[in-house]
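Order emerges. One example.
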Amino acid sequence: MDGSVFLVTGGSRGIGAAIAIAAARAGYRVLLSYASAADRAAQVVAGIRAEGGLAQAVLADIADAEDVAALFAAADAMGPLKVLACSGGITGAPSQLADVEPETLSRVVDVNLVGAMLCAREAVRRMSTDSGGTGGAIVFLSSRATAYGSPNEHVWYAASKGGIDALTTGLAREVGGQGIRVNAVSPGPIDTEMLSAQKRAAATALSPVGRIGTPEEAAAAVMFLASDAASFITGANLAVSGGR
């Protein structure tokens, strides 16, 4: 990849970690951000390096503009940014909307939506051919929760991801002439820590294919949208949900 950098937010666990590993195996230099669990981020980096890849982890709150600026400065030090995968996201504790704390609402929207916009802003500044860049790809992680609404659990999370869907559409049209493609992946039930045992059982029972997905399957969709094989795809939202 000629020293190109693949930046993954939320890359210490789950889908984000799977994306980071897949990107390294595709030949990218990988920079991943994490908000907690430094040990897990270090494990992902160590695993990539053990396979001969180049990777680095940076502590960053993507809802904080200064942290985001520092994160992208670290990317600049690694090489030219080619791909941004916005995987970082939170849900908050499950409840009905009537019972949720205002702080939870603000934090979820700040991390999931504002954070994605802050990161995309920095990526566009570097990738845009209007600014001397060579183009690139941005892939947002949305969710099939936008179709379900997540009632009685995380209505605010679904709403934040609905914002990601709109961001994908609008930004794709805004920067398409600047050599940047913008797409989204919307996972359904995936085998990560966000899915409780009860949810796993319920999702499996409702699944047309009789199972939940793996982080690697979601990562594969991200890698496709980031690749030259998707060179005429922008503004798309790919469901990785086993038919739901």
Remarks:
- The first strand starts at residue 5 and ends at 9.
- The domain at 5-240 is CATH 3.40.50.720 (Rossmann fold).
- The chain has a mean pLDDT of 95.
- The longest helix spans residues 102-127.
